[in-house]
Amino acid sequence: MSKNFFEIKNATFKVGGINKVNNVSFSIEKEGDIICLLGPSGIGKTTILRSIAGLEKIDSGSIMLNGKILSSNKINVEPEDRSISLSFQENSLFPHYTVEKNILLGKERKNSGKKKKLNINKIIKLLNINKILNHYPHQISAGEAQRASLARSLISQPDLLLLDEPLSNVDQSFKEEIQVQLKKLLKDLKITTIIVTHDSYEAFYLGNKCGIILNKQLKQFDDPYNVYHFPNSVEVVNFLNRGILIPAKVTGGDSLENDDLGIIKGKFIKHYPSGSNVKLLLQPEDLEHDDDSNLKLEVVDRKFRGTNFIYTLKTPSNQLIPVAVHTHHWEQHEVNEKFGIKRPIYIEHIVCF
């Protein structure tokens, strides 16, 4: 029997008889942990949530919660008997009930086994829906409907909470505040949660672990730090879009060389024999700016990211390299100007493919 609070083992998820994600295995070790699933639209993330909730069947593998098999090729526990709550991305409110009545439906199916008492007014205030409690779903915006649905799911205090793009319709100015409060609330109440999101920053903040789903497979399942800094495939690198791959040749146990940048030193994550031709992952944080450096590249773009500028630099071989610079740096560089790269180049962890 599994010692994990939740576990999916070798499960294939289908919809309409078509395989969406094959041979998926991952687990949630402790009650109260938060897992985030990332991947492009239509890849099967929602199908996984629906299958966990019991709305879709699986014919291979198993899904277990708190030591109990929920789904397998022989067992399929009905949705109402799973103590699982699923909040959909689209409006799932009952149209003939007010927002308040919709939310209180969650209270009616509340799990009595939970030790901590949930303050309903606190949830309503957190999600900023107190002014629409007497409205009907057709009278509110998509973002308000999404937050009301989230409130209903939270109030039910399930053993497992499933959230499908829970903040996709929420204004950016309000989203970060909800993320902070939502994470605190889920941790405080020890509500184990699986979140589907397209926002990698949201996933990295909320998730104890993140899963990347690409091409019908769970490509990587790891801590957010490792997913970002140690992607395990070119596919994950391209999906996250947080860096580029440049050609390089391994010149020793702690060094490699690129024709444009010269010698780069650091710690290899994986061993490559000297002389190997590799693709080096270069992320915006890897290179440092230095106005006095003799290695200067042309600025072709500059993006403002609040605390940072992301400069795109063109090398002599027409590689486009991103470099992050803190916005408090005294001198800003314009497009077509020269931008210095600090030498010697040292990257803490060298990731190659």
Mean pLDDT: 91
Derived structural class: alpha/beta
User: Secondary-structure element sequence?
Assistant: EEEHEEEHHHEHEHEEHHEEEEEEEEE
Write down the CATH class of the largest domain.
Answer: Alpha Beta
Number of helices: 8
From the alpha carbons, calculate the radius of gyration and give it in angstroms: 24 Å
Q: Write the CATH architecture name of the largest domain.
A: 3-Layer(aba) Sandwich
Uncertain segments of ≥5 residues (pLDDT<50)? Answer: none
Percentage of β-strand residues: 25-35%
Strand numbers in spatial order across the main sheet: 6-7-8-3-9-10
What does this 3D model show about the protein?
The protein is an alpha/beta fold and 353 residues long. The chain folds into two domains: 6-235, Rossmann fold; 243-350, OB fold (Dihydrolipoamide Acetyltransferase, E2P), CATH 2.40.50. The protein is built from eight helices and 19 strands. The protein has a six-stranded mixed sheet, with helices on both faces. Strands 14-11-12-13-19 form a five-stranded mixed sheet, with no helix packed on it. A four-stranded antiparallel sheet has the order 2-1-4-5, covered by helices on one side. β11 and β12 form a beta hairpin. α2 (99-108) runs parallel beside α4. The longest helix is centred in the middle third of the chain and has 18 residues, at 172-189. The two termini are 38 Å apart. The model has no long low-confidence stretch (mean pLDDT 91).
